[in-house]
Specification:
- This protein folds into two domains: 58 residues, no CATH class; 56 residues, no CATH class.
- It is globular.
- It is 0% helix and 44% strand.
- It is built from no helices and nine strands.
């Protein structure tokens, strides 16, 4: 991977996120972060592995970051979260959260993505 340039913020985990590093996160109504759902707007990519609710977390919010793939995709593909916060190719009506900078060969690959200002995919 190339050099990662990223703006990060401190956050509080809403649950055990120790297996969710590099997955898309959203702020819940309680102000804590939880994994994003499929096709939704995200608040950032989790950079560490907080192991319980209320634990400190680091959320990457702007820039280039590692992210976990939920399926194969190619550089330049628009990406959206799947049901557990991994990134997959965006479909019609999905919110575009990032653009791929590297090839993901399969689910579980960790590759560079560039976080984007979010908008719906073209119909």
């Amino acid at each position: 991977m190339g050099q990662v340039r990223l703006i990060e913020v401190s956050a509080e985990a809403g649950q055990d996120l120790s297996t969710s590093q590099y997955r898309a996160m959203v702020y819940a109504s309680d102000g804590q972060i939880d994994p994003a759902g499929a096709g939704v707007s995200i608040d950032g990519i989790l950079q560490d592995k907080p192991d319980g609710a209320g634990k400190a977390a680091i959320l990457g919010i702007v820039g280039i970051t590692p992210a976990e793939a939920g399926a194969a995709f190619n550089p330049g593909d628009d990406l959206t979260p799947d049901s557990v916060g991994r990134l997959v190719t965006a479909g019609t009506g999905d919110v575009i959260a990032a653009v791929a900078r590297q090839t993901a060969s399969a689910a579980g690959d960790v590759v560079e993505v560039q976080l984007k200002i979010q908008a719906e995919a073209p119909t």
